[in-house]
Amino acid sequence: MRVLVAEDQKAVRAGLVLILRSAPDIEVVGEAGDGETAVRMARALRPDLVLMDVQMPVMDGVEATRRVVAEDLADVLVLTTFDLDAYVFGALRAGAAGFLLKNTEARDLIEAVRTVARGEGLIAPAVTRRLISEFAAPRPGRPARGAAQAGTAPDPGVLAPLTRREREVLSCLGEGLSNAEVAVRLDMAEATVKTHVSRVLGKLGLRSRVQAAVLARELGV
Fold it and tell me: What backbone phi and psi angles, to 5 degrees, belong to 142?
């Protein structure tokens, strides 16, 4: 798989590239030090995946993610830390296929890239649960953060095309469950879960499992 690394700190970027190049099935095709360059290189190189930092000069990773996804240039795996709340949620809204903490171990970084490249999107269920809880759970005195950012609460009517089983799968995604965990919860084969997840994303017009999870929490599914 062909990967473009976008990270403004040279030392960090060099470390990421070194780790990725240690995997025989990963080719680093380019490096970018800001979001604008990342978008331009994605257009030129057409990588399978962009490993995207969120805080970068010229154009931040959220806007760069939005452009890469909108133009269908590549999947985006966002590098983040939990103290960058607005950036994280913005990246997910922009269509990022997954997210990764900057302190992730080398082997987990490689596996995360492989996971997103396979189209599964969800990286670490435990981390996803924490993220979903932070951004989508309503709190006293304010709406869910996603609703606030969008300017209005999601319309429950968007769920109308889903079957009962697909709603159950969406609810599990809202809890941050992995495919294997959903399979156990709903007593079905993991391959069947993957099929349902794909259908849910397609019917709701979403790019990633994490987007579906946030929507599920916002709607209280």
Answer: -155, 155
Annotate 153-197 with DSSP letters as a single string: PPPGGGGTT--HHHHHHHHHHHTT--HHHHHHHHT--HHHHHHHH
Residue 83 predicted with pLDDT over 90: no
Tens digit of each residue's pLDDT (9 = 90 or more) over 158-212: 899 999 999 999 999 888 787 888 999 999 998 899 899 989 989 998 877 777 8
Burial (CB count within 10 angstroms: exposed 0-12, middle 13-18, buried 19+), residue 55: middle
| Angle, helices 190-204/164-174, rounded to nearest 10 degrees | 90
pTM for the structure as a whole: 0.69
Instruction: Name the strands in the sheet holding 49-53, side by side, starting at the edge strand that comes first in the sequence.
Output: 27-32, 2-6, 49-53, 75-80, 98-101
Burial class, 188, CB count within 10 angstroms (exposed 0-12 / middle 13-18 / buried 19+): middle
- Reference 59, options 83, 84, 96, 32; nearest CA is 32
Q: Are strands 27-32 and 49-53 parallel, antiparallel or unpaired?
A: unpaired
Amino acid at 161: P
